[in-house]
Design brief:
- The chain is an alpha+beta fold.
- The chain folds into 2 domains: about 230 residues, no CATH class; about 90 residues, no CATH class.
- About 60% of the residues lie in helices and about 15% in strands.
- The chain contains 12 helices and 6 strands.
- A 6-stranded antiparallel β-sheet has the order 1-2-3-4-5-6, with no helix packed on it.
- The longest helix has about 40 residues.
- The two termini are about 25 Å apart.
- The model has no long low-confidence stretch (mean pLDDT about 85).
Length: about 350
């Protein structure tokens, strides 16, 4: 059962967080417009697409800076409570510090559930719209950069592997194509072509300078053709998925996509796993950051709120910085993606325990 004090603190928690979001998002939009207006005008982007982009931008921006918004909002209103000696009055009435944290924990649960639902359903769609617009209109030669186009290697079945040295998305053409089929560890046949082109009308591929070598026990059979139309067991998007594909998928879709990419021997599995695990680690951070923020700001300090805000901003940005550092390490090194994603929460979890012990004293 919530007391009047609980409701008062919970209301301040949620209202301050909402106001902080509403204050910073327009600033983010203003900065983004100032940076990109020349590109938008140069490419004559329709106003409808621009408005749709900034709707997606709001969701994408809010999700990305969620820890900072949450941390600063708690620091702000808790520091005001401390400066007005409201916290001293609450604790002097016989309420323990642990009981004082109850409305903060409830607020963290509400924020965490909201963040989890956003990450599952709203953020994937917003990420797709945000990145599509950015690569289509804002990034130089972005249509080619939005996909993996160099040294594309895929396993399309349990026994078949394909490779192209370069893929041109606009021409739907790959170069230096190789396809190999194995029986256990023995090569069955190998197909090579100088280029491979997708035919959308009948969903076939045309191989130019086609060469097929069938490996026999005593001798090999070789088949050549200037060009040949064949059906292959992969689609164009499977050959060159967009670089941000994992961000645009719901958890169920992402799990299926990761399993499919593992079978294909994709080199980007760690990138996809980082996106998957962050969907769960970011909501948990709401609890950890809430405890740290309350511990830091519940004491009245010399210098007033300024000291608490400075400390809060430093801790919030260091959390985001660590999150980015370890996410990048997971993508580029042998560091386990799950461990990399959870390290910031683990480190700040220990920090929260230490600060809570000091605050109780």
């Amino acid at each position: 059962m919530l007391t009047i004090i609980d409701k008062y603190i919970l209301k301040r928690y949620l209202v301050t967080f909402s106001v902080m979001m509403l204050l910073f998002i327009p600033i983010g939009i203003t900065v983004d417009v100032a940076e990109k207006i020349n590109k938008i005008l140069e490419n004559k982007v329709p106003i409808g697409k621009v408005l749709s982009y900034y709707l997606d931008f709001v969701i994408y921006f809010a999700d990305f800076l969620f820890p900072i918004f949450l941390f600063l909002s708690i620091i702000w209103f808790t520091s005001k409570l401390a400066n007005n000696t409201e916290i001293i009055a609450i604790l002097s009435s016989g309420i323990s510090f642990q009981r004082f944290l109850k409305p903060y924990i409830i607020g963290a649960i509400i924020i965490s559930l909201g963040s989890l639902l956003m990450g599952f359903f709203l953020v994937p769609k917003a990420s797709e719209g945000f990145n599509n617009f950015r690569y289509m209109y804002l990034v130089g030669n972005g249509r080619n950069e939005m996909r993996e186009t160099n040294d594309v290697y895929r396993q399309i079945s349990n026994t078949e592997f394909i490779y192209v040295s370069n893929f041109n998305q606009e021409a739907k053409t790959g170069y230096n194509f190789v396809m190999e089929k194995f029986n256990k560890e023995k090569l069955v046949h190998k197909i090579t072509a100088s280029s491979i082109q997708w035919n959308p009308k009948d969903s076939t591929y045309t191989l130019f300078n086609y060469n097929k070598r069938i490996v026999g026990e005593l001798d090999d059979k070789i088949e050549t053709n200037p060009s040949k139309n064949i059906k292959l067991k992969f689609e164009l998007d499977d050959l060159t998925p967009v670089v941000y594909i994992a961000e645009t998928l719901t958890p169920t879709e992402l799990n299926k996509f990761i399993e499919k990419e593992k079978k294909r021997g994709s080199a980007n599995i760690n990138t996809y796993l980082v996106v998957k695990y962050r969907k769960y680690s970011v909501p948990v951070s709401a609890f950890i950051l809430t405890l740290i923020a309350v511990s830091v700001s519940s004491m009245k300090r010399r210098g007033g709120m300024g000291v608490n805000l400075a400390l809060g901003i430093s801790l919030a940005f260091s959390y985001v910085f660590l999150d980015k550092i370890f996410s990048t390490l997971a993508r580029k090194s042998d560091l386990t993606p799950m461990l990399a994603v959870w390290i910031p929460n683990i480190l700040y979890g220990f920090l929260a325990i230490i600060l809570l012990r000091n605050a109780r004293r």
